[in-house]
Amino acid sequence: MDDSLRLFLDHLAVSGRSPHTLAAYRADIERLAALLGKPPRQATSTDLRKALAKLHAQGQNSRSLARRLSSWRQLYRWLQRNALREDDPSSGLRAPKRDKLLPKALPVDGAAALLDRIDGDSELDARDRAIYELIYSCGLRLSEAVSLNLDDIDFSDNLLRIRGKGSKERLAPIGAEAMARLRDWLRLRVAPSSENALFLGRHGRRLGGRQVEKRLRDWAIKTGASQHVHPHMLRHSFASHLLQSSGDLRAVQELLGHANLSSTQIYTALDFQHLAKVYDGAHPRARKDAKPDDEAE
Fold first, then answer.
1. Fold type of domain 108-282
2. Is 283 annotated as catalytic?
3. For the chain, N or C: smaller number of CB within 10 Å?
4. Tens of pLDDT along 88-125?
C-alpha cells in the first residue's frame, strides 16, 4: 500500500470511523489494488469499470459491489481534495442495480391452515382471528389495519375503507370469512363510546402494530408453521394468491393501493415461481430423473 492510501485511511480514523468501517475500507481498497495490478492512484475510469466487471464475474452481488464502489469513490474524492489527483475516475460509474428480493408469501393451503387454527375462545383470540383474516382478505398493510375505525366498515355492501400511504383512500371488498370473524369480534368488543378504533388492546385503546406482529408470531409457532410469519406476509399472500387465480395485475394494483404498477409487478415473479413448481411436479418431461418413453416401465 502506497503512502497516499495510508494517509487516506489515517484520515478516516481521525474522522471518527469505527474500527469495523475502517477495516471494510481497507479491504475494499486492497482488493482494488489487487484487481488493478497497480496503485489505485494511477487507475483510469476504464480500469475501475473492468475491476467492477471482474468482481461481478466472480459472483459478488450488487450490494457488495455498491459498497466497494462507495469506498473507491471516497478514496478518489479525498485524493482530489488533497491535490494528489486532478480527476475522479469513479465519477459516473454505477454499480449494478440491487437485486430485488421477492416478497415472502404463504402457500394457499398454508395461509388457510394458519388462520383456521386461530380458534381460541377469549376476546383477544376473536380479535386476532378478525384482524388477520381482514389483512389477508383485503391485502392490508399493518399500519392500515391498526388505523381502521368502526365506521370504515360498510356492512351492507361488505366493503372496507382503507387509508393508505399519503392519506390516499381506497375501497376493498371484504371476504365472507373475514366478515364473519369481524362480526364475532364486534360482539365481544368492549370500549368507551368515545373509542372509535376497530381493533383494541387489552386496556381498551387502539391496538398497536408491534402487538399485532408479536401475536401473529406466537400463533404461527403454536400452529406449527414452518417459517417465521409476519403481518406483511399475509398481504403478500393476498396479492400472490389473487394474481394466481385471476391474472389481473391492474386489479391487484388497485386493491393493494400501489401508486405504480411496477410495485405490483414483483408478484408476477412469485406467480411464475408457483407455475414453475406445478410444471416441475406435474409434467412428465420436466423432471431430471424422468426416463425416455422407450425406457419407461
1. hpI Integrase; Chain A (1.10.443)
2. no
3. C
4. 999 888 876 665 666 688 888 889 999 999 987 899 99
